[in-house]
Amino acid sequence: MEYNPFTNPPFTSIWIKYFASNLPVFNFPFFKGLSFVKHSWLPLYINVGKNQTKGITYQLNPNSSKFFKNHVFLIYDCSDYYNLVGDFSNRTIGRFQIEQYSGFIADLSGQETVQDYLKRELSKRGRQKIIRYEKRLNTCFRISFKMHQENIPLETYENLFQYFKSFLIKRFDEKQETNNNLDEKEWDFFKVLTFELLKDKQASLFVTYEDETPIAISLHYLRGKTIIDVIRSFDIDYSKFHLGSVSIAALIKWCYENSIDRIDFSKGDFEYKRSWANLEHHFENHIYYNKRSTTSSLLAMTISRYFKLKRFLRDFGLNQRFHKFTYSLNKRNSKIQEKILPSYMLIDTVPINSKSDMELLDMEKIKVYGLKKTLNDFLFLTSEHKTDAKVYKMKSEPYFFIEGLNSNKKVIPK
What we know:
Low-confidence stretches: none
Shape: elongated
CATH architecture of the largest domain: 3-Layer(aba) Sandwich
């Protein structure tokens, strides 16, 4: 059976530590390549990894089904693209296959260069946009890309994950939605797991740097010649520059240079995935049960209907409403109220003649006032370089000035 990062150590052992503490792990000859934990009170076994994986694969041994009795076996996130199960027909054992999510893959193998791939998969207008964003980003900043694909110093790793988490928090605060990855246990799980996988080059962190500061990070796990997108985010202070698109284009280039054939964007239907991918697949939950057991059959049917209902509600966007509701609920219940930084707008102004009533701000003060995004918007709009721009605060008035080599803008609260 091919290597799957979600059914092999250390994923399984670390998942058990975080999500199934003190629970025994079971292996059954009917399911090759899978381990299970038992539900606390139902006759239900759930695959190790549950919904924290990005695609489960397994094989069946239909001749080893005597142990089923009144039990049900639930396997999350089985991708039909990596389908190793095949057709199934058994007089005693039944199977439900409930589709849950769409998944998207960029298959790079049909083209020789990144330019060929972009020409085939993106419209002329789409390619022009990417070129424009890349050019503008490099005009305004000193940008570099680095793939961290091996064991790195713990201090460096901790620093990257601190940036990574801050990007996600800012992004979902902006959307006013909860994000499961930011759950404390889930985030610690991925953080510990990734550090272990990096030791054997089974994981990677693709980082976009502005000077030496990370501004976009994507986490991947490796599966042969495929890299699997696990989590990705960027600093929304650079949103004008479309960092998401620029970093994906840079990642595709890296893949061509390093003989990677596919980027698996994994489960979840998002516009950026449809834009970059050329293959769509589907993630299903598989439920196996004993047809001759009333208990097993009824439990399997109930679970099947539960997941069908979840998919139905998700198709109508109710999951997003739920995430917005839980976000507002968590904020209301939070004992620590975060300081909300003001938002600003840029307006044209005449050149600054006298600076006697102004204070020149350094970058740390710019962050304190929440002006970093406004400064970056200025750079994008004027094509000025960051090193040529200065930000001034009026000592007697509640507004700012940004002065570049060729442009000036007044900054006022919205």
